[in-house]
Amino acid sequence: MTSFSAIPLSVLDLATVRAGMTNAEALAQTITTAKAADELGYRRFWVAEHHGMAAVASSAPAVLIGAIAAATTRIRVGSGGVMLPNHSSLVIAEQFGTLVALHGDRIDLGLGRAPGTDGLTARMLRRNVQNETADDFPQQVVELLALFGIVPPLENGVGATVVAVPGAGDAPLMWLLGSSGFSAQLAGIMGLPFVFAHHFAGTAETPRAFELYRERFTPSAVLEKPLAMVSVATVVADDAKEASRLALPHNLWAVRLRQGGRPGAVPTLAEAEAHPWTEGERAFAAERNAQQAVGSREHVRSRVSALVEATGANEVILVPQGPDLESRLRTLTELAA
To answer: Does 286 map to a domain?
Structure first.
């Protein structure tokens, strides 16, 4: 099995808003977590774009990334990811070109093709983007590559007549995110780094996405050989029972999300413990914990190593999910030791 100590580790944070917490408090905790990850030696710290969700305050990744990069010194900072169909390629090139101009070679641009929200909110986000949909995602990625000057200008003038300032010559490292075989194959064909969202789409089929990525990989101006990362939800505690207890709030939130509608802020630990869990809900939570990395330090390290062994991922991005800042920081500290 792959040695845990040899695995490069990063952190994915959603600026989670918990019951009774303000957005300002959630964002402050994200910056505190980023500082800790920087000091602990983690490789990257990413935030994810979601909209209209009471539990997620990272709706403006570029703004938050700027704040995090300014508060840290070494760690790479980026998006996990920007939902590209919500934006014009030019705007994203300008935003992330500005971040690179300000912070140098510390910026990652992870791109997703899902809206990260409901249909109505997605239409509001795209109101000035004519008829663009997720189906246009590959073309948007090519436009970004041209705007950053990574590939030659396109026939429609993107990268020549239409330029990004900052942007051209200020390219972040671009990654494609996915939770299916489609994104894995697209990342391979385009010769870009790939991240699989195992933390919410994890099943026994996760390794297949990495196989598809490597099978379709074509060297590019960005990469000569495949570079892949896998995300995993993580809770470290003294033992399995306590870790499962600390995972209850996020599991309850996931149950509510699965049942449809807007699940609200992530519940408190007390609320999650008092919830009248049905047999089906308990089974869902147990299966979710089994697919992720929830348990003692030794179990979590073993689980992460096994996930790397199964997928062949080059890196792992942890999604710490304890019920409070203290428990999440403990998870990061225990795994960095």
So the answer is: no
For residue 81, is it within any domain?
yes
Residue of 200, 195, 149 lying closest to 46 (CA atoms): 195
- The list of the chain residues with pLDDT below 70 reads 115-135, 261
- What tokens were used for 136? 């246009």
Number of structural domains, the chain?
Answer: 1
**Strand, coil or helix: what is 277?**
coil
Peptide bond before residue 172 is cis, with ω within 30 degrees of 0 = no
Sequence-ordered list of residues with C-beta below 8 angstroms from that of 232, at least 6 positions apart, any chain: 198, 199, 202, 292, 293, 303, 304, 307, 316, 317, 318, 319
- Report the phi/psi class of residue 15: left, alpha or beta, with left for phi > 0 and alpha for psi in -120 to 50: left
Secondary structure (DSSP) of 73-97 = SSSEEEEEEEEGGGS-HHHHHHHHH
How far apart, in whole angstroms, are the C-alpha atoms of residue 161 and residue 153? 9
107 beta partners: 77
Q: Residues 62-91: pLDDT tens digits?
A: 999 999 999 999 999 999 999 998 899 999
Give Cα 314 distance to the centre of its chain.
Answer: 16
**What is the torsional sign of CA 271, 274, 275, 280?**
positive
* 264 phi-psi bin (left φ>0, alpha ψ -120 to 50, beta other): left
Is residue 66 situated within a structural domain? yes
In tens, the pLDDT along 117-175 reads: 566 666 666 645 455 555 689 999 999 999 999 999 999 999 999 999 999 999 999 99
Residue 309 corresponds to which tokens in the numbers above? Answer: 């062994």
Q: Which CATH number covers residue 318?
A: 3.20.20.30
Note down the domain range covering 80: 4-240+294-336
**Other CB atoms closer than 10 Å to residue 238's CB: what's the count?**
10
The stretches of 180-323 forming alpha helices (DSSP H) are: 181-190, 198-201, 206-216, 240-246, 248-258, 269-274, 279-291, 297-311
Strands 194-196 and 107-112, by their bridges, are unpaired
In a domain, 270, yes or no: no
pLDDT at res. 117: 57
For the entire predicted model, the pTM comes to: 0.94
